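Quick question, first post here. What does this chain look like in 3D?
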Amino acid sequence: MKDQSICIIKIALREAKQNLSFNLPKPRAERIKEWQ
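> Answer (accepted):
Ran it through. Tokens below.
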């Protein structure tokens, strides 16, 4: 459970960087569903 939450946090940080650079917001829920 802890490892999974850490992965989700890393993915969220990666998304934030992509959103800032590409300015293409995407719901986190969809991304999390894709990774699960």
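The chain has one domain: 2-35.
Residues 2-35 form one domain.
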